[in-house]
Design a protein that fits this description.
6 helices, globular, alpha+beta, about 30% helix, eight-stranded mixed sheet, Serine Protease, Human Cytomegalovirus Protease, Chain A
Length: about 230
């Protein structure tokens, strides 16, 4: 186990390298019309493209030291493309819950980088996110069963808006899209199929008075629920 970790440590440049992994797209959202972004920067127990699994509690020390109410220097910030010289946002909420690391941040005003980032987000050009951290190697384990590096603690530095991440689904979502997905989650697959059938039936009945039977049969399969 120790040899595997040492191998990974050597490969990834020791303890002073930043690695970016995607934000979970289903839980992230952007409030159109204001400067607020919010979501889950890390999802506990989810294996990322670097074969890493972050465990709940991994960010506790970072939040306590450099979070919203932390007294330490080098506060955790919002960046664009991981450029440390151009911070674009202030984190207003950062906490761990049972699902993951939740954050809320407001894009600052008055800088070229922040205004460009906000414009690109609103126009759908800048939609993906990642975060930067350092390993805490004595809190790292190798899990042979899951073929993954278990991270029980990381040193979190920033959350970034990026053009590309290692996961195409790691995107900012509008609040309306987020609400739709959350609503659909409460329905079972069979309930959705039943509703689809009901819609098809209603569609057929409404067309029967105006369309020839042959035309109804040709068009009924074009009804889409989503």
């Amino acid at each position: 186990m120790d040899s595997k970790i040492e191998e990974i440590k050597k490969e990834r440049g020791g303890s002073n390298s930043f690695f970016s992994v995607p934000l979970d797209g289903e839980r992230s959202k952007f409030n159109e019309g204001d400067r607020l972004i919010k979501g889950y920067a890390i999802v506990w127990g989810s294996k990322n493209d670097y074969n890493e699994i972050v465990i709940k509690g991994a960010c506790t020390n970072s939040i306590n030291a450099r979070g919203v109410n932390g007294s330490g220097k080098n506060k955790i910030v919002i960046l664009k493309q991981h450029r440390q010289s151009e911070p674009i946002g202030n984190i207003t909420k950062l906490l761990e819950d049972d699902y993951g690391l939740y954050f809320e941040a407001e894009i600052i005003t008055g800088t070229t980088a922040s205004e460009e980032a906000l414009s690109e987000v609103r126009q759908g050009v800048l939609r993906q996110l990642s975060y930067g951290f350092n390993y805490v190697w004595d809190k790292v384990e190798w899990d042979e069963v899951n073929d993954a590096l278990i991270l029980r603690e990381i040193k979190l530095f920033e959350i970034s808006l990026v053009t590309f991440s290692s996961d195409e689904n790691a995107q900012l979502r509008s609040f309306n899209d987020y609400q739709k997905k959350e609503i659909l989650k409460v329905f079972k697959h069979q309930e959705i199929e039943n509703l689809r059938g009901l819609l098809n039936s209603i569609n057929t009945d409404s067309r029967a008075e105006h369309c020839p039977k042959q035309q109804i049969n040709a068009n009924i399969n074009k009804v889409k629920f989503f």
